[in-house]
Amino acid sequence: MAETTQYLLFSLALGVLLVGGVGLFVVDTGSTSPDPVLFEDTVTMGVTLENEPDGEDIEIPKAQVFYSQYDYVVGYHGLERFVDDRQQPGHQERFGYPIAVYVSDFSETDAELTDQGYPTADGRLGWTDAESAAFVVGSDAETPAGETVMPFSDQDDAAAFAEAHGGTVLSWEQLLESEFEIDDADAIRERVDERHERADDQVATSQTLADRPETVVVGDDAATIQDAIELAPDESTVVVPEGTYEEHVEIDRPITLSGDGDATIQGDETGTVVSVTAAEAAVTDLRITGVGNTTRPEDRETTAADEGSEDVLEMAYGQGDAGVEIENGNETLVENVTVETPANGVLLRDSPDAVVRNVTVYGSDSWNDGYMGVMTMRSPDGVIENSRFVDGRDGIYTHRSHGLVYRNNTLERNRIGVHLMYTSDVLIADNRIRNAQTTGIDVMTNPEHNAIVGNEIQQTSRGLLMDGSRSYVAENLITDTEVGLAAGAGNSIYENNVLAGNVDGIQASHLLPTNQVVGNDFVGNYRHASARVGVLRIWTENGAGNYWHGAVGTSDGTVLDRSYSATDHVDERLHRVDGTPTLARAPASDALNALEGSVSGMREESIVDTAPLCEPSNPDLLEQTDWEAPDRDCR
């Protein structure tokens, strides 16, 4: 039996060797360079304009690179991104060497800069060979991510642009040696504490709104809440004594509306109950019921021309009834408020720097009938913390609301717990998400620089779906899902997460091998990891990788001497099928395992950890699950 098994393994290895060239870019050293392709047909990396409403008028300089190891073309938004990536350790091992590089050609396009420094061009940009182009570095030209390199096919055009907008003209060889300040995932990791500190300061500042002097008391000084609001001077507090008040109110000045005891504002089940249209207003210590059930206005029909427009997105997601609606209200506060709503709980529209804390929102039992616990539409730099969102559509939904801090919240039975659209630079930390119908945290529409840290996601269909780039995902506990973590954000760090008891622990869904995946614990998953697309990924950094329940080998005290491949037909069964550890140690299997990093036919959709950890990296997190790592002598 053993001889038969070894024979089959050797036969498989030979078969792979024979078909090794299939699926990779075939290099013909005697042929001319490949021609440029449509940029839409490349696999893109770098900054995008998804988060810029006027992005269609901006021309980000681009590069398209034909790599020796791929049969597809890699497209870079921003030449500085290609230069920076090329300089990273291990880049050539992962990608191979560039066979040809083409860059955007701003010659003969009357290149100009917007007030923000974004490049524009009169006419359609063409492509030019990078080796013969001239590049302006250090000019006033920028993208939403910072400085950018301007390429020209004509040296005189480059010199003219530098004279008009500053900068230095470099050759291709000089550009490749240049250094650029790029916010990568390491920088995002370093900013987590800074973001918490900024949020702490913002919350502390907001408390001045809760401490305003009490000047008007409903029932004593005014018959209704609205009368009291109109009577109160700016920078003061309207007190709502215990009881139920059947009315809708509007706050159009910087005052605080605060309940005293069990105070309830009850609407008539039509429209928003509390509307705020002023900066530095506050709503605190109230219960709000009787909210209308409109989630989308019905006074206009969506036409084909509207699809995908900013107007349609706002109509679809940024409207509707709410317990508290704040529009054009900077630095507002909603605190210690409970909302029962068939629509939105708190709706923020064009209201930056808001603080929403200690809020409870009970939505519709069926998410199809409900809406958002907190909706932020173009409301950046807010803090949402220590709150609870039960039922309804999404616990929090964001749209172009960069810089949010969303922490220490509990989300139960939503469709999606946290749903980010067109939103970057967000910290999502220490939230508890359970029984989401579809997804615990869903980061969409190609954002950058998000940090997802310390969250607990349990019993959802999909735990955490990451899109975009240059983000940081760490110390999350994800259990009892169909897909624990879909790692779709490229150039990102995924570290010190625990994925236990899922069908798929992690799905490598980004096409290019640009992510750092280390220090994670995979325990009790049916499949620890799967690769939906792409080529070989090496999930090891500086001689150490991840803990894989079932991995075999001899330990040096920290790592095992046998690599582990979660996508290998033998390795993926080591933790759940008797006899596979013996098969894995067979000489033929070890020989096959060693080929994975070098034989091209075995590189497609593969994951290899060349130094798997002997013990879990995050024992405290793992103790919070129903799973434990098997005993192992790691001395």
TrEMBL record:
Residues 373-550 form the Periplasmic copper-binding protein NosD beta helix domain. Pathway: Protein modification; protein ubiquitination. Coiled coil: none annotated. Residues 611-635 are annotated as: Disordered. The keyword Transmembrane helix applies. One of its GO terms (biological process) is ubiquitin-dependent protein catabolic process. The keyword Transmembrane helix applies. Pfam families: NosD, NosL. InterPro entries: N2O_reductase_NosL, NosD_dom, Para_beta_helix_rpt-2, PbH1, Pectin_lyas_fold, Pectin_lyase_fold/virulence, SCF-Subunits/Alg-Epimerases. The chain crosses the membrane at residues 7-27. Keywords: Membrane, Repeat, Transmembrane, Transmembrane helix, Ubl conjugation pathway. SUPFAM superfamilies: NosL/MerB-like, Pectin lyase-like. It comes from the Archaea. This is NosL family protein.
